[in-house]
Every structure is written in structure tokens, then in C-alpha cells.
Amino acid sequence: MSSHGGPGLLLRARPYVDVKIHADTTNRAKPMALRDEVPKVGVYIDFENLHATFADAQFGDGSYRDNRMSVQPMFFDIAPILHYAASLGDVVICKAYANWQFFSNYRHVLNEGSVDLIQLFPRGPNMKNSADIRLALDCLSDVHGHDHLSHVVIVSCDSDFIPLVQRVKQAGRFVAGVGVTGRSSRFLVSACNEYKFYENLIPATNKAEAAPPSATTEVAGPEDGTMKPLLDASSTTAADTALAMAIPEPGSSTPSLAELEPVMLEVMRQLAEREENYIFCGKVKLGIKRRFPAFDEQALGFTSFKQFLQHFAGIVTFVDHDGGGHVALVEPTASPSHGDGLIPSQA
After folding, report:
1. What average pLDDT does the segment 97-120 reach?
2. Please, which pLDDT band fits residue 240 given cuts at 50, 70 and 90?
3. From 87, 168, 293, 304, which residue has the greatest number of CB atoms within 10 Å?
4. Buried b (16+ CB within 10 A) or exposed e, 41-59
5. CA dist list (Å): 200 to 62, 160, 313
6. What domains can you pick out in the chain, each with its CATH number?
């Protein structure tokens, strides 16, 4: 009996079991620790607002309101927005808010993006839904209920979300916004840590493919079930031209190089004082984005931030390329009238 199951056999086996369990636990802990270091992102999409913005931009203000009770055609692709969110870290929450019975044409792209669809039926005679309220409540609940959530992306052009942005920032989260050039509230743009315009998220090679579908899309009428055009097809060309040539609201688009030049000078002077004029390139970009959350060097035609810095050779000079690169402020030439803070032009 003792040779099969006696105490001696149990004592000899115990060290082997202990070592095996300890080794497995160590191996499992390593990948978990690495995953914890990756930023966690929550995405909240005011879908109906974004769709209405594209519809009104293409066919004129009020077009979506007049046709909102019909099945809607696709005006944009959600994928570039999700790709941008994924560039910030692991997307652990992705919710979109709308009355989905009219947005069935988006079902494939939404399913591919694993978007959680929050259905909001309109309440009351004015047909106004509560997407903004529900989105804000969900976002704040997630921020305070999930400590690992580090980044929040709010997809909307609506200034009503400014208080939400402020609250999320107070909780120590990074807030990014996504909207449409010339249609996003400049105050919402300024409130975010970073703001991207949809047009700038589309790769240059795909912009032609991302054009909105023709306005001749046929949809079922809400009352008699007959087929009718959603919007006036004759206005397509004029509307597209108007959208392309629209003068954006100040502060609601990517800043121009002329607007950026004095900011570059100010940021470089501030950093030069703190960093002994040996400045990490990433800090320069962060300083610019704090002033212009919508700043995007690629939207200005540059392939990289380093190439953007090279454009301002009168303000910035490269010191080295170690660890992402370091730059220094180019000291202005002594001049009796240098008090205006501008770099004198080179002869």
C-alpha cells in the first residue's frame, strides 16, 4: 500500500508541482503586463449628427431634416475614423448613436468595425432624439467606471459636447474629436486635446473612392412605399462645388502655414528657455497642438512632422536625429526693430 499511495510519494511529488505552477504563472504574467502598457481608447460616435453634416454639406442646409424619415444613402465611410482611433491605442469601447431603422445602408461597414449600435427612437412630436444626452451619460459612466480608459474619441461637430469634453479632461483623460472641415464648431475644436477632420483621415489614394454616392439613390417613401429620389439630383454638381469651395468658419479647419508661423516662434522660444535650446521634436508638435488641436501636418502637404519643421528654417534648425530628433531655436539677427518678435527675412 505504501509503495502506491503512501506519504513518501506525496512529499516527493510536491516540489515538482510547485515549480510547474510557478513557471506557468510567470509566463502568463509577461504578456498581460505588456498589454496593460498600451493606451485604452473609447470611441463615441454621434452618428446621426455626422451623417446630417455630410448630407447638408452636399445638398444644402436643412436637406437631412427634410428627408430624415427616409432610408438614408451612405455619405461617408466609418473606417478612417476607426483607424484613427486605433492609432491611439487599443479600442476597447466603440459606440454609435442613431435611429438605426433609417441607416441600414451602413450596416456592412459598421459590422466590419465591430461598432456597438445604440438605438434611439425619437420621442415627442418634434422628432428630436436624445443621442447627445445618452452619449454623454455613457461616456462619463465609462470614464469613471473603467480606470484603464486613457483616451476618449468623440465623433461629432456639435458644440453641445463641449461640457462633456471638459469633464472628461478633468478626469485626466486625453480627448480627441473628429468632425468635418468648415462644419465643426470652432469651440469644440479648441476644447479637445486633438481634433481631426474627416477629410484629413482619408488616405490620398482613397479620396476619390470615398466620394459620397450619387444623389439619385432610390429609397422607399415613408408613407406609400413607392420609390422616390432622396434628394434633388440636379443640385449635385453645384453642391459638390460649394462644399469644395466653402469658406470654413474661423478655427474650424486645419490652421494655415501663415497662422502657424507666429505660434511656431512662440513655442520654440518657450521650449528653448526650459530645454537649454535642445528640444525634442515631439515637444514642439505637442506645443503646437495645444494651441491648434486641429493641426495636422499631412493636411498641409507634408509627409512628416520633420518635413514640416524644415519649412520653418528661419525659426528651427535640426541639431541631431537621435530618438526622434532634436531641434534648436534659430536666434534672430540683431536689429534695431527686432522687438516685433518676427524673424528678419534673409536677403
Report:
1. 94
2. very low
3. 168
4. bbbbbbbbbbbbbbbbbbb
5. 25, 23, 25
6. 40-245 (3.40.50.1010), 257-340 (3.30.420.610)
